[in-house]
Design goal:
The protein is of the alpha+beta class. About 30% of the residues lie in helices and about 15% in strands.
Length: about 130
Protein backbone atom coordinates (compact mmCIF):
# COMPACT_ATOMS: atom_id res chain seq x y z
CA UNK A 1 0.00 0.00 0.00
CA UNK A 2 2.83 2.36 0.87
CA UNK A 3 4.45 1.75 -2.53
CA UNK A 4 1.16 2.56 -4.29
CA UNK A 5 0.90 5.83 -2.32
CA UNK A 6 4.46 6.71 -3.37
CA UNK A 7 3.58 6.14 -7.03
CA UNK A 8 0.41 8.24 -6.71
CA UNK A 9 2.43 11.04 -5.09
CA UNK A 10 5.10 10.92 -7.81
CA UNK A 11 2.56 10.86 -10.65
CA UNK A 12 0.69 13.81 -9.13
CA UNK A 13 3.92 15.79 -8.75
CA UNK A 14 4.72 15.24 -12.42
CA UNK A 15 1.19 16.22 -13.44
CA UNK A 16 1.44 19.34 -11.27
CA UNK A 17 4.77 20.23 -12.93
CA UNK A 18 3.06 20.33 -16.33
CA UNK A 19 0.30 22.48 -14.80
CA UNK A 20 -2.35 19.81 -15.18
CA UNK A 21 -5.52 19.74 -13.09
CA UNK A 22 -5.74 15.97 -13.56
CA UNK A 23 -4.70 14.02 -10.47
CA UNK A 24 -4.18 10.32 -9.86
CA UNK A 25 -6.48 9.12 -7.09
CA UNK A 26 -5.41 5.52 -6.66
CA UNK A 27 -3.49 2.75 -8.36
CA UNK A 28 -4.25 -0.95 -8.19
CA UNK A 29 -3.28 -4.15 -10.00
CA UNK A 30 -5.60 -5.50 -12.67
CA UNK A 31 -5.44 -8.47 -15.06
CA UNK A 32 -3.69 -6.45 -17.79
CA UNK A 33 -1.17 -4.69 -15.51
CA UNK A 34 -2.07 -1.76 -13.28
CA UNK A 35 -5.02 0.59 -13.32
CA UNK A 36 -4.61 4.23 -12.37
CA UNK A 37 -7.82 6.08 -11.57
CA UNK A 38 -7.79 9.83 -12.10
CA UNK A 39 -10.15 12.66 -11.22
CA UNK A 40 -10.73 13.45 -14.92
CA UNK A 41 -9.98 11.98 -18.33
CA UNK A 42 -6.26 12.55 -19.02
CA UNK A 43 -5.39 14.56 -22.12
CA UNK A 44 -2.47 13.58 -24.36
CA UNK A 45 0.08 15.48 -22.27
CA UNK A 46 -1.15 13.84 -19.02
CA UNK A 47 -1.21 10.46 -20.73
CA UNK A 48 2.41 10.86 -21.91
CA UNK A 49 3.57 12.06 -18.48
CA UNK A 50 2.05 9.05 -16.72
CA UNK A 51 3.46 6.68 -19.33
CA UNK A 52 6.99 8.13 -18.97
CA UNK A 53 6.78 7.73 -15.18
CA UNK A 54 5.65 4.10 -15.43
CA UNK A 55 8.58 3.33 -17.72
CA UNK A 56 11.01 4.78 -15.15
CA UNK A 57 9.78 2.71 -12.18
CA UNK A 58 12.45 0.34 -10.85
CA UNK A 59 12.19 -3.03 -12.54
CA UNK A 60 9.75 -1.86 -15.21
CA UNK A 61 11.91 -1.46 -18.28
CA UNK A 62 10.54 0.10 -21.45
CA UNK A 63 9.95 -3.35 -22.89
CA UNK A 64 7.56 -4.32 -20.07
CA UNK A 65 5.05 -1.54 -20.73
CA UNK A 66 3.47 -2.29 -24.06
CA UNK A 67 0.99 0.55 -24.05
CA UNK A 68 -0.91 2.91 -21.82
CA UNK A 69 -4.58 3.12 -22.79
CA UNK A 70 -7.78 4.75 -21.69
CA UNK A 71 -10.91 2.67 -21.22
CA UNK A 72 -13.55 3.05 -23.90
CA UNK A 73 -17.18 2.15 -23.79
CA UNK A 74 -18.99 0.48 -26.63
CA UNK A 75 -22.71 0.67 -27.03
CA UNK A 76 -25.25 -0.75 -29.41
CA UNK A 77 -27.41 1.73 -31.29
CA UNK A 78 -30.61 0.64 -32.98
CA UNK A 79 -32.41 3.07 -35.28
CA UNK A 80 -35.82 2.00 -36.54
CA UNK A 81 -38.39 3.16 -39.09
CA UNK A 82 -35.99 4.46 -41.72
CA UNK A 83 -37.16 3.92 -45.31
CA UNK A 84 -35.28 1.00 -46.88
CA UNK A 85 -35.81 2.32 -50.41
CA UNK A 86 -34.61 5.91 -50.54
CA UNK A 87 -36.43 8.69 -52.48
CA UNK A 88 -33.84 8.33 -55.29
CA UNK A 89 -34.81 4.63 -55.65
CA UNK A 90 -31.60 3.20 -54.16
CA UNK A 91 -31.51 0.82 -51.21
CA UNK A 92 -30.29 2.17 -47.88
CA UNK A 93 -26.65 1.14 -47.20
CA UNK A 94 -24.41 1.14 -44.14
CA UNK A 95 -22.00 3.53 -45.88
CA UNK A 96 -24.89 5.93 -46.53
CA UNK A 97 -25.82 5.86 -42.86
CA UNK A 98 -22.20 6.45 -41.78
CA UNK A 99 -21.90 9.42 -44.16
CA UNK A 100 -25.16 10.92 -42.88
CA UNK A 101 -24.11 10.45 -39.25
CA UNK A 102 -20.84 12.31 -39.86
CA UNK A 103 -22.85 15.37 -40.90
CA UNK A 104 -25.14 15.40 -37.87
CA UNK A 105 -24.01 17.32 -34.79
CA UNK A 106 -25.62 14.74 -32.49
CA UNK A 107 -23.16 12.07 -33.69
CA UNK A 108 -19.97 14.22 -33.79
CA UNK A 109 -18.38 12.60 -30.69
CA UNK A 110 -19.32 9.07 -31.83
CA UNK A 111 -16.69 6.75 -33.29
CA UNK A 112 -18.15 3.62 -34.81
CA UNK A 113 -16.43 0.38 -33.79
CA UNK A 114 -17.86 -1.44 -36.80
CA UNK A 115 -19.60 -0.68 -40.08
CA UNK A 116 -23.28 0.17 -39.89
CA UNK A 117 -25.53 -2.70 -40.82
CA UNK A 118 -28.91 -2.19 -42.45
CA UNK A 119 -31.59 -4.84 -42.07
CA UNK A 120 -34.91 -4.75 -43.88
CA UNK A 121 -37.54 -5.09 -41.14
CA UNK A 122 -39.92 -7.24 -43.17
CA UNK A 123 -40.37 -8.35 -46.80
CA UNK A 124 -43.26 -6.00 -47.70
CA UNK A 125 -43.04 -2.62 -45.92
CA UNK A 126 -40.39 -0.10 -46.85
CA UNK A 127 -38.92 -0.01 -43.30
CA UNK A 128 -35.39 -0.82 -42.17
CA UNK A 129 -33.51 -1.24 -38.90
CA UNK A 130 -29.99 0.08 -38.48
Amino acid sequence: MEEANTHIFQINMLLKNIKSVTRAEFIHPCPRGVSINTNSVPNTSNHNTIERYLKLIDGAGNNKILTLWLPQSKSYLKITSIPYIQPNGNKLTGDGITTTMKHLELFEPVNLAAKSRVIKASPKPNISII
